[in-house]
Design a protein that fits this description.
The complex is a heterotetramer of chains A (53), B (516), C (368) and D (418).
Chain A: H1 2-25, H2 29-49
Helix pairs in contact in A: 1-2
Chain C: H1 10-22, H2 29-37, H3 41-65, H4 71-114, H5 120-137, H6 139-167, H7 181-190, H8 197-201, H9 211-247, H10 251-258, H11 268-297, H12 307-318, H13 324-357, H14 359-367
Chain D: H1 2-19, E1 31-41, E2 48-55, E3 73-80, H2 86-89, E4 97-99, E5 105-109, H3 110-113, H4 118-127, E6 136-140, H5 144-150, H6 159-173, H7 181-190, E7 194-201, E8 233-241, E9 244-249, H8 251-260, E10 268-274, E11 282-288, E12 294-298, E13 305-316, H9 329-358, H10 366-371, H11 376-382, H12 384-387, E14 392-401, H13 413-417
Parallel strand pairs in D: 1-4, 1-5, 5-6, 6-7, 13-14
Antiparallel strand pairs in D: 1-2, 2-3, 7-8, 8-9, 10-11, 11-13, 12-13
């Protein structure tokens, strides 16, 4: 179960970073930063909320 | 990430077909010549193109015009022509000709005769069953119609049976099909345009629509889509359907397939577009909505209440066929409290000696049922019913007696199988049967929660589906002005509007006076 | 005919409101009201409705002059770039947190009432995946789905309430004024944000086929929802009485647990799927709103690609509050408490700004 | 875009498949169904003896696989702090998982019901999701375990059917109160009323002279019923105040309570009452309540006053004295006045009993009092429970005659005997 969650989160992370990159290429730098920020939160959050409890 | 995926997906698509060295090109080049002044050259050329005399049914008749003594050569393919017409209206008059100045048009006694100037036209005419005449000293050839393809005569509809109403069905001859439709719409605005869709076999599709009803954009859209097809051969409509639909992986069909001319006609009159083709005993109706798959012609032929009763039964059957097995699993394994006490004890009692869990039991029986069904379909005709009886009755009974399957499961599976037959449309029928299995899985995994999740996803999917720009569930949602013929139909007099989602040129089906 | 690409009609729009707000009767909203207003919760509900009408009308007024702008664009227009973005961001933050809390309440309901042994995480993931799928399909699809299922969902809710009504005793609503008018007024003030969703609806305002339909749909749906919630609040009281209702955390589910219809003695699993469908559509819509607003603020046009990342964030925020049953109501109340004054003041502020900028005058000139 | 959706879908499939756990899955054949739970006092503090009445699903089914000769039910008793943990501990003796899906009754012995601690144990029922609020509460004279094991219903082999039908019918005719747990919790939490629970026993008195004969003004176990029938009686009510049993009501008293209480679903009562024309005989009447009881209340007086009017429709079904009251207006009037008087005295006796003995009322009158107050605070200050014993209550029965049997007239007795 845990392994699965880690993999799923990673996939979503990569997916979102990809999206952020394409935004960057479209010259939407603020948007790209915001999306990247979200992606990082998504990657870090499980650590605090799920795996620590 | 998604970019990479996109690229990957794109790459797969753009792969060039291997070994595409085209013999078609060389075939085309020989045809591109014009017709020569010398009849010898022409005869040689045609003989070469058709590989005469290896090709056994290519016939050549050479003779001289009775009066002017000019050489004449008549080419035709004997298996697809009416030889009698050629003899009586062409060869006979030519031989018996008395006026040296008479042109070929004056000699031949068929309904029409066309003037051909290239070898390409010659080949095409011969392929469609016409006879071609070459005359000494002329740079053009003449073709006259004498096609006679073999085929069935008009027979009864087999898949879409009705109790009341016409029984005739489309046949494999497109001319006959067209005539069946023309018989119903005696209007000069009924257009029957053709588009050649394949490069090698030269299959032709008839696009039928009523000019002052159907939306032009829609017609153009479909024509373009047909013209843009780049394939060697599309034998019939069932294959064409798969070429033109938007979502090839979708569970739900987006084109309606009907073998009934009356049904096709009623769609034409609503502003839909019909495709007809040789070799297909049916028609393609587009755009199609979910409701057109759910309806049958009988619903409208029967009186208001009876028709709606049939619809009600069918809607119930649809619900049962999708859900009952899944509900049984969900309820017995996750939500046993909702079963009435006596039934619960009965089920529990009958399950005591059964070796498998409910989920597996249902799955086993459903698969068995599908097996019987498939076997019954493929078995030669006289044995079909026997298979059904043997399979369903004996197998079920024996399974219960051997304590392998509990009797209630047999009831459930039989019910879900039986009800699936009420949906007559083949595509929807398959869709429902497959969806049933998905529901069975989701029920086995998460009970009612899983089923509901999948159901909601299905609803989202259905609502986002479109068939040639028309939402799949229109006019129910999104709402359109229409005759209101969805789950239930209205009284015929009140169904006086054409479906708004087709954006027809004339919304009103009947004038108000007619209603009164 | 009228429908353009990407727009929804009045039916779909109303169906969405009826589902998102109407399903509040089946979560813990009634409990929050009962907590302070006791058996007079329904009176405080009417008060909330009356009071909510003010910001809603102001909001409609503002939207009437900016027909093709959504909430965020209006904010930008009215408050300038910096303030507008800040306000939108605040709205997004509040909307997002109430979305997280709402989903975790629902998952808690499913987990504690129906699937006691299934891990919360699994339920949560499944629910969010479905909602994410819905949000990705877009507003048209959500609207259509809402309209298609609306009738059945409301019919079953109605059925449940009717049966509960026959089982209850109408005299339990007395004493009429419950804990006293002061308490009722306090409840009204602090729980005003039950209808804050109407503010968020501004995000999809330009997606409704015409402003006329938007206004008509909003007001009608508002009226229906108020009647529905009030009726439900009365019915829960007459079934459980004011003492029990305070201890019950999810009155709707307790009601369907208690009901028996004919030969079926336990019907809760029969109502469950309908309730779930409503929940799925509701959260699909919320997720769509959140993602759209985010996309609007950061000028991301293809915002549907953000759905997965939002799912992950919501999921792990949602499972964070430990001891769900204790912390959730507390958090919920806090959010409602923050939202209430905002919901009341913001629309008025927007109207005032519009007035100052002379937007209404221009409108009047245009119409002449 | 389209391609991407497809990819998304492919992503979703493993999501659903891998996530599945079947955590809540329970095979039907791996459960046993508890029909009744019995609660008894144990000598250990904080614990009670709990008895499960478990149904055998195989009984009563006829399948090709061959029937069985197993018992219909089994009972298991164990000591436990509550009936949640017991579900697992009982698996030491029972092979399958315990399910409360078919739970119909919770049986409590009188001894435990009278214990102050009782409420603690019962409230754990509200916590368990599987115990529905429409489970019935039954109080037994003997130990609950004894009741459950001794009870041997005739004809109804499925035990849940027996309890269901017995209670349903009992409530319909008014012999036992509707004692759903829902009402128990509600009344106990409201803290103003008496809660009535079904009273039952298998402990039927054996001595001849202690029987009451042919009358329902008795408690379960006191009625003479001969022949081979069910070994349990369900009659009368156990009275609970603040979650503790404080007394009993007989069958007739229970009927009166149900007649007076608006919320009860009693439809009609067939009952014998004394014949005003002839001492030796009793008339059988059908009493129906067609309108709600009207209760007028004056709470501001000291002591508060309650005036209750009970509108009844009475069908006189027999006429043993053969006096033919239908014909004669005077006789009808006499019938009416004696009947009203008879009922009023019966009712007043019960009201007095409730005021003196129980010091609380089971009639639901506190609900009428609520209307008189504006806020909950006022109502709480009034303190219904404390005020009730001092109240001045009078009950007025208003009788309307309905039918007089299928054939209204009988030939006069004298005429036949001539």
């Amino acid at each position: 179960m845990n392994a699965f969650i880690v993999i799923a989160v990673c996939i979503v992370f990569v997916y979102t970073v990809g999206f952020a990159l394409s935004l960057w290429k479209q010259k939407n730098k603020i948007g790209a930063m915001a999306v990247l920020f979200l992606a990082v939160i998504a990657l870090v959050l499980p650590y605090f909320s799920y795996f620590q409890s | 990430m998604f970019k990479v995926l996109k690229k990957l997906a794109g790459k797969k698509r753009n792969k060039r077909p291997v070994g595409s060295e085209d013999t078609l090109a060389s075939q085309a080049s020989t045809k591109d010549q014009s017709i020569s002044y010398q009849i010898e050259d022409n005869i040689k050329q045609v003989k070469k193109i058709f590989h005469y005399p290896d090709n056994k049914d290519i016939k050549l008749r050479e003779c001289k015009i009775g009066a002017s003594e000019k050489r004449v050569a008549i080419f035709f393919i004997s298996t697809i022509t009416d030889v009698r017409t050629i003899e009586d209206s062409a060869i006979g008059p030519i031989l018996k000709n008395k006026h040296p100045d008479a042109t070929i048009k004056e000699m031949i006694a068929t309904q029409n005769i066309t003037h051909l100037s290239t070898m390409r036209d010659v080949v095409q005419n011969m392929n469609t069953g016409n006879a071609v005449i070459f005359i000494e000293g002329e740079t053009s050839a003449y073709a006259f119609e004498c096609a006679n393809f073999q085929g069935r005569s008009v027979e009864k509809a087999e898949n879409e049976v009705v109790i009341k109403g016409p029984k005739e069905a489309f046949t494999e001859k497109v001319v006959v099909n067209l005539s069946l439709i023309r018989k119903r719409i005696k209007n000069e605005d009924l257009m029957a345009e053709t588009v050649t869709i394949s490069t090698r076999s030269k299959n032709e599709v008839f696009i039928l629509y009523i000019r002052n009803l159907a939306n032009e954009k829609l017609v153009d859209n479909i024509k373009n889509r047909l013209k843009n097809l780049d394939v060697d051969a599309i034998q019939n409509l069932s294959l064409l359907e798969q070429y033109i639909e938007e979502r090839p992986f979708s569970m739900f069909p987006s084109v309606l397939y009907s073998e009934r001319p009356d049904r096709a006609t009623s769609f034409l009159e609503d502003g839909h577009i019909i495709l007809l083709m040789d070799n297909s005993p049916d028609s393609l109706i587009l755009p199609a909505t979910f409701w057109s798959f759910f309806h049958t012609s009988d619903d409208h032929y029967l009186r208001f209440i009876f028709g709606n009763f049939a619809r009600f039964i069918r809607a119930g059957a649809m619900f049962i066929t999708i859900f009952i097995s899944a509900i049984f699993i969900a309820v017995t394994t996750y939500h046993s409290e909702m079963i009435p006490a006596d039934l619960l004890l009965a089920i529990a009692g009958s399950r005591e000696k059964v070796p498998f869990p409910v989920f597996f039991e249902i799955l086993l029986m459903e698969i068995a049922f599908e097996l019987i069904r498939e076997a019954g379909l493929r078995v030669p005709n006289p044995m079909g019913p026997t298979i059904g009886i043997v399979g369903a009755l004996i197998l079920g009974q024996a399974a219960v007696e051997a304590n392998i399957i509990s009797p209630i499961v047999i009831i459930v599976v039989a019910l879900s199988g039986l009800t699936s037959f009420t949906i007559s449309d083949v595509s929807l029928n398959f869709a429902l049967r497959i969806i049933r299995f998905i529901f069975i899985f989701s029920a086995g995994l998460f009970g009612i929660f899983g089923m509901t999740s999948f159901f909601v996803m299905g609803i989202f999917y259905l609502t986002s589906l479109k068939s040639f720009g028309v939402p799949f569930l229109a006019p129910m949602s999104p709402h359109y002005v229409a005759s209101g013929d969805t789950i239930f139909r209205r009284v015929l007099k009140n169904e006086n509007l054409r479906p708004g989602y087709l954006k027809p040129k004339d919304m009103k089906k009947k004038s108000d006076e007619a209603v009164k | 005919m009228k429908q353009n690409e990407g727009k929804i009609g009045i039916r779909d729009y109303m169906a969405i409101i009826l589902l998102t707000l109407g399903s509040k009767v089946s979560d813990d909203t009634p409990t929050l009201l009962y907590k302070t207003a006791k058996n007079s919760a329904w009176i405080s509900m009417l008060g909330i409705a009356l009071l909510s009408l003010i910001p809603i009308l102001f909001l409609l007024k503002v939207f009437s002059v900016h027909r093709n702008k959504n909430l965020h664009e209006i904010n930008l227009h009215l408050f300038g770039k910096v303030m507008g973005n800040l306000i939108s961001m605040g709205v997004l933050l509040l909307g997002f947190s109430s979305f997280v809390l709402d989903t975790s309440v629902y998952v808690d309901i499913i987990g504690s009432m129906y699937f006691t042994r299934t891990p919360t995480l699994a339920l949560y993931i499944l629910m969010l995946v479905v909602c994410g799928y819905g949000a990705k399909r877009g507003i048209e699809s959500i609207g259509s789905a809402a309209w298609l299922t609306l009738f059945y969902l409301k019919a079953t809710l109605f059925l449940a309430l009717i049966f509960a009504f026959t089982k209850g005793n109408l005299k339990f609503i007395f004493p009429l004024w419950g804990p006293g008018t002061l308490e009722i007024a306090k409840t009204t003030g602090s729980k005003l944000s039950i209808f804050a969703d109407f503010y968020f609806l501004g995000i999809i305002a330009p997606l409704v086929s015409s402003f006329k339909e938007f206004r008509k749909g909003t007001l009608w749906a508002f009226a229906i929802v108020v009647v529905e919630i009030t009726a439900a609040l009365i019915i829960f009281v007459i079934l459980f009485d004011f003492t029990s209702i305070e201890v019950i955390s999810y009155p709707f589910h307790e009601t369907i647990l208690y009901l028996s219809i004919g030969f079926l003695s336990n019907v809760e699993s029969m109502f469950l799927p309908f309730w779930l469908v409503a929940a799925f559509i509701r959260f699909s819509f919320y997720l769509y709103l959140v993602v759209t607003l985010f996309g609007g603020i950061f000028k991301i046009k293809e915002f549907e690609y953000l759905v997965p990342v939002f799912i992950v964030i919501v999921l792990f925020l949602g499972i964070m509050p430990k001891n769900l049953t204790y912390t959730l109501p507390y958090l919920r109340e806090m959010i409602l408490g923050i939202l209430s004054p905002l919901f009341f003041i913001l629309p008025i502020l927007m109207w005032g700004m519009a007035k100052l900028r002379g937007d209404f005058k221009r409108e009047a000139e245009q119409s002449h | 875009m389209k391609q991407n959706n497809l990819i998304k879908l492919i992503f979703l499939i493993p999501f659903i498949l891998i996530l599945t756990g079947c955590w809540d899955l329970k095979g039907l054949d791996r459960q046993v169904f508890v029909i009744g739970i019995g609660l008894d006092v144990s000598d250990e503090k904080g614990k009670i003896d709990i008895t499960y009445l478990i149904a055998n699903p195989e009984v009563g089914t006829s399948f090709a696989g061959g029937g069985t000769e197993e018992d219909t039910v089994m009972t298991v008793t164990m000591r436990s702090p509550d009936f949640l943990s017991l579900r697992h501990s009982v698996n030491a003796a029972v092979a399958r998982e315990i399910s409360y899906d078919l739970l119909k009754v919770i049986v409590v012995s009188e001894e435990l019901a009278k214990d102050e601690e009782f409420i603690r144990f019962l409230y754990s029922a509200e916590k368990d999701r599987e115990i529905k609020r429409n489970t019935y509460l039954i109080v037994t004279k003997e130990k609950a375990a004894e009741f459950l094991s001794k009870n041997d219903p005739k004809f109804l082999t499925r035990p849940h059917k027996f309890y269901e039908n017995m209670i349903q019918r009992g409530i319909e005719v008014g012999f036992i109160p509707n004692s759903e747990l829902h009402h128990f919790f509600r009344v106990t939490e409201e803290d103003a009323n008496l809660f009535l629970a079904t009273y039952a026993t298998t402990n039927i008195r054996q001595k001849e002279d202690e029987y009451r004969i042919n009358e329902m003004d008795a408690l379960a176990g006191d009625v003479r019923i001969e022949g081979e029938t069910n070994s349990a009686n369900f009659l009368g009510a156990a009275v609970f105040l603040e979650g503790m049993m404080i007394g009993t009501l007989t069958g007739v008293e229970n009927r009166i309570v149900m007649l007076l209480h608006d919320a009860s679903s009693i439809t009609d009562i067939l009952a014998p009452i004394p014949d005003p024309f002839h001492e030796d005989y009793e008339l059988t009447v059908r009493i129906r309540k067609q309108h709600n009881t009207s209760v007028e209340m004056n709470v501001h007086d000291m002591p508060p006053k309650i005036h209750v009017t009970l509108p009844l429709t009475v069908d006189v079904l027999t006429d043993p004295s053969m006096e033919n009251p239908v014909d004669n207006k005077k006789k009808v009037e006499k019938l009416r006045s004696t009947m009203e008087e008879f009922m009023e005295t019966k009712i007043m006796a019960l009201v007095e009993k409730s005021q003196k003995e129980f010091k609380a009322e089971p009639f639901g009158w506190s609900l009428y009092a609520r209307k008189e107050f504006k806020t909950l605070k006022d109502y709480m200050e009034f303190d219904w429970m404390r005020t009730y014993p001092e109240m001045k209550i009078d009950v007025d029965v208003e009788i309307r005659f309905g039918q007089f049997g299928r054939q209204p007239k009988t030939p006069s007795y004298k005429g036949i005997r001539d």
